[in-house]
Amino acid sequence: MRARVVPALVLALLALFINVPEARAQVVGGFDFSRAEVSVTGLQVPWALAFLPDGSALVSERNTARILQVRPGQTPTPVATISGVSASGESGLLGIAVSPSYAQDGWVYAYFTSTSGDNRLVRLQLSAPQTQTVIFSGVPSATVHDGGRIAFGPDGMLYVATGDAGNTANAQNLNSPAGKILRMTPTGGVPSGNPFSGSRVWSYGHRNVQGLAWDSQGRMYATEFGQNTLDEINQIVAGGNYGWPTCEGTCSNPSFRNPIVTWTTAQASPSGLAYANNTLFAAALRGQRLWTVPLTSSGGAGTPLAELQSAYGRLRAVAVGQDGWLWVATSNRDGRGTPVAQDDRIIRIPPATSGTDTTAPTAPGNLAASGTTATGATLSWTASTDNVGVTGYDILRATGTSGGTFAQAGTSATTSFTDTGLAANTAYRYQVRARDAAGNLSPVSNTITVTTSGGTGTGGCTATPTTQSQWGTGYVIQPVTVANTGTSGINGWTVTFTLPAGHTVTGSWNATLSVSGQTVTARSAGHNGTIAAAQSTTFGFQATRPSGNTQVPSGYQCTSP
């Protein structure tokens, strides 16, 4: 990307104001990124977002196979579990979509890697979530390159993005659904107007598409993972060949369509894609940022700008909510990120406002805590007032009974909030402030101190591994079931095991792994460290091994505080 050059005179002028708080909104693509807020926490590898007519969102979790309903500031609610999901590596429950006629038919669509060895598409109704009808199957699957994004286009047809499943030849084979963008009817059939007779193939020559979006003129765009060099956003046309595996990025072959923008794989690894205000928004995993890409009148790309860079970790999904805010989901618990206690999260960015409201809300009152446990506490307070209306509350937290800096721990649309993932036997201080639609912030509430209880730490635990899949040079161990064998709850656990010589762990989920020699130590994540008596939780990992070696890890031992 072209470097920005700032004249020395401008730098000198800025230096005069170095101690003045920033007052300008960071507005890009019609959204105010200076007011980004964490709205949902405690998710486990969210993969896709889709919105219901009431404004709430459905979220798919890749590894748990759950679909959850979420609202800002509220605890996610499981509403369905997809049957027969095989989750390992990049596979599992992936895309979800809501029928354009949901108010009449109630259909929700889900795309996933199945235990039958393929990727497939089902639809269901939340009123009877256990009834799931397969409407399309047989897409080649693997632990990598499963594509997975699904979306209804402005034509009412269902579009499905697939990957090459690790076999590059699939992308150019029009008889294979892998490495394609497919177009089908809401019941899975072949619609009229497709470019290849009797085929669902809409475009081909794709390596791994995980983002789909349409602009206001109905033009279609897709994000695509490159191999080692360049990631892409492409404008998609019917029958277009996008060049994989011959081309990665732009090439001179007139048989292939070139991308409208490329990045290095370290800058992007783009997954979800959204459109608003003549701008594309691409969620970057490895790049840990949200790329904003202005569109030209011809559907090409202007100069991309990066937002949220390294602020929230790996970003998987992005969508424009029915509330007009931009919703972004993290993917820090997918085995390739560094999760924090709140992960995975949904961040919301409000639309820019051009009003002249400068009146701040009143301070929230009577902040109090209840229901404190070893890992969480519930806060409540008296509502603020504002001349045009309070839009939400920021929950601020500092560690210890004094000193330290308050940082935002979450947001709430109501006058209560449950903070989770806390450390046992630890003091925390809390404050709450209100905000309005213009971004005005109230004074903070009273300060309270909450001390979590100590972990019970009695009883023991066991770890039982299951070998889910193996191939010549690797394997997936999932689940490793961690069971509380004691008579009271445990708060945190550690599992150790031994890797055979020459084996290397390449990814993990639902635990933090460290390796010393051949000894692997897996520690509980923030969301699964507390296990009640006689209950259990799980984690998993993937590893490579020398060709011809059939050994798997051994000597699993579990300890708890």
What is the 3D form? globular
The quaternary state of the protein chains shown equals single chain
Lateral strand order in the biggest sheet: 3-26-25-24
| Total count of helical runs of at least 4 residues | 2
Which CATH architecture of the largest domain? 6 Propeller
**What percentage of residues falls in helices of 4 or more residues?**
under 10%
CATH H-level superfamily of the largest domain: TolB, C-terminal domain
List the uncertain runs.
Answer: 1-25
What topology emerges from the helices and strands here?
Elements: H1 8-15, E1 27-28, E2 31-32, E3 37-40, E4 46-51, E5 57-61, E6 66-70, E7 77-81, E8 93-98, H2 102-105, E9 107-113, E10 118-125, E11 133-140, E12 150-152, E13 158-161, E14 180-184, E15 201-204, E16 209-214, E17 220-224, E18 230-236, E19 261-264, E20 270-276, E21 279-284, E22 289-294, E23 305-307, E24 315-320, E25 326-330, E26 346-349, E27 365-370, E28 377-382, E29 390-399, E30 407-412, E31 416-419, E32 427-436, E33 448-451, E34 461-471, E35 474-484, E36 490-491, E37 494-498, E38 504-509, E39 511-516, E40 519-524, E41 530-531, E42 536-544, E43 554-559
